[in-house]
């Protein structure tokens, strides 16, 4: 790469770098288009109950964060180009199959295929970014990579709304299959293998590393505490879409509401990171864990907003449902909390690892999302079933009352009277995580001081 300054800093990278980023953009656009509406699709079109849907998506989403540990090792053996071709062929087939056949068995098979294909992509693309940038420019390379991730995710969720309302939920799967095929075409035409020497590990080494990490009690406790944060964050996909549509109506836009979170992060992450640069990493994480329960609590305030401001809430030229107002404020707070957490979490987690195994442990820090998605999606199904049920499970009279309420004629059925209580549960999870982190910090600081005195 050529340099544009004496320090060697540049924004110029080889073709393989830009090809990998375009591939990542397509993959994220496909994934988030389906993911934001996946719980809706599985319940409405496939026929899973809320509880069944919660468990199905819990395993699908969580394994997407665990499987790359092992598929990354396979990708090194296959070669990146061949592995990417296999990955996107699987993704296109999985998304297409998911949309074409609305049966439970087919849905489970499709999600497994999507999970398997998707698990190859992240280690290969991030590995390509690493191999096509030098030490001086790696931070710039990854900043471009994460921009592509966010652009793709934003685009996928934005497109999902008109596809759902104008064509139907199954067409979102076909859109994602199309995005995967476009990525596959880019790989076949433009992507060339990069030198992967010195990268990756064998399957046996990956398994042994995972076992060592899980056996480290100090590290795993931190992972589980921070999973409390991501459990709430994950409700953008687990609970929020059904909650919004069941309380507001089909004109609601949970796909667009979910984009508030990355928008807030993009705007505020740099100034907030600068603001807390002198704080200990654990203090910045504690601020995030203090904010996150308030984000859930804010979402629960829609009945209060309705009493205070009426329904709809008049905000100048904009008239919004109280649930929409509560979601906007709560999701914005989630994004704000993420600005305090994400830049400092890996820094703090690295200090909990043995000094000679920091790299190994950082490779498994994503376990926090594995646990959060597994628990968060599973509990979501039970909470929705209890407090904000599928209208089709109600009696005919209650269904009629629900339809009338959504049209602005009368109150909601009693089954929805305490829908906001769902968010009390998540606020409690966030508060428990905050208290647990304070205890964890006190205990680990004490143990570190004792170690120094020895």
Task: Explain what you see.
This protein has two domains: 180 residues, Growth Hormone, Chain: A, CATH 1.20.1250.20; 254 residues, Growth Hormone, Chain: A (Up-down Bundle), CATH 1.20.1250. The protein is mainly alpha-helical. The N terminus is likely disordered. The relative contact order is 0.13. The chain has a two-stranded antiparallel ribbon with strand order 1-2. It is globular and about 65 Å long. It contains 21 helices and two strands. The longest helix is centred in the last third of the chain and has 33 residues.
Shape: globular
Q: According to CATH, what is the class of the largest domain?
A: Mainly Alpha
User: What is the arithmetic mean of pLDDT?
Assistant: 90
Instruction: Please estimate the helix content.
Output: over 70%
Would you count the extended β strands for me?
A: 2
Keywords, please?
454 residues; mainly alpha; Growth Hormone, Chain: A
């Amino acid at each position: 790469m050529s340099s544009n300054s004496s320090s060697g800093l540049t924004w110029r990278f080889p073709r393989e770098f830009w090809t990998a980023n375009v591939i990542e953009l397509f993959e994220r656009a496909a994934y988030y288009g389906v993911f934001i509406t996946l719980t809706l699709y599985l319940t409405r079109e496939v026929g899973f109950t809320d509880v069944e849907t919660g468990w199905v998506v819990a395993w699908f989403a969580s394994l997407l964060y665990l499987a790359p540990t092992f598929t990354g090792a396979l990708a090194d053996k296959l070669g990146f180009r061949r592995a990417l071709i296999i990955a996107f062929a699987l993704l296109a087939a999985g998304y297409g199959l998911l949309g074409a056949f609305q049966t439970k068995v087919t849905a489970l098979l499709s999600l497994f295929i999507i999970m398997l294909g998707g698990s190859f992509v992240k280690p290969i693309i991030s590995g390509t970014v690493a191999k096509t940038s030098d030490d001086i420019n790696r931070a710039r390379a990854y900043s471009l990579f994460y921009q592509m991730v966010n652009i793709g995710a934003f685009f996928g969720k934005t497109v999902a709304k008109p596809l759902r309302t104008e064509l139907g939920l199954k067409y979102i799967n076909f859109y994602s299959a199309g995005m995967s095929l476009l990525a596959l075409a880019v790989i076949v035409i433009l992507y060339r293998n990069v030198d992967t020497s010195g990268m990756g590990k064998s399957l046996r080494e990956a398994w042994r590393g995972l076992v060592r990490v899980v056996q480290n009690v100090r590290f795993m406790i931190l992972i589980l505490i921070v999973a409390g944060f991501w459990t709430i964050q994950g409700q953008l996909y687990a609970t929020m879409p059904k909650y919004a549509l069941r309380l507001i109506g089909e004109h609601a836009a949970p796909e667009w509401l979910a984009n508030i979170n990355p928008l807030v992060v993009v705007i505020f992450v740099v100034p907030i990171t600068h603001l807390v640069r002198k704080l200990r990493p654990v203090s910045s994480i504690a601020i995030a864990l203090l904010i996150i329960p308030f984000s859930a609590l804010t979402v629960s305030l829609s009945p209060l907003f309705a009493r205070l401001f009426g329904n709809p809430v008049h905000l100048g030229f904009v008239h919004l449902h109280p649930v929409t107002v509560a979601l906007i404020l709560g999701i914005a707070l989630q994004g704000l909390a993420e600005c305090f957490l994400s830049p400092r979490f890996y820094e703090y987690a690295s200090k909990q690892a043995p000094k000679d195994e920091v790299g190994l442990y950082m490779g498994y820090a994503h376990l926090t999302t594995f646990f959060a998605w597994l628990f968060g999606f599973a509990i979501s199904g039970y909470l929705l079933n209890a407090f904000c049920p599928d209208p089709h499970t109600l009696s005919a009279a209650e269904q009629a009352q629900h339809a009338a309420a959504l049209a602005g004629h009368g109150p909601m059925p009693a089954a929805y009277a305490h829908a906001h209580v769902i968010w009390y549960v998540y606020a409690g999870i966030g508060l428990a995580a905050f208290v647990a982190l304070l205890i964890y910090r006190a205990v680990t600081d004490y143990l570190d001081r004792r170690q120094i005195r020895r």
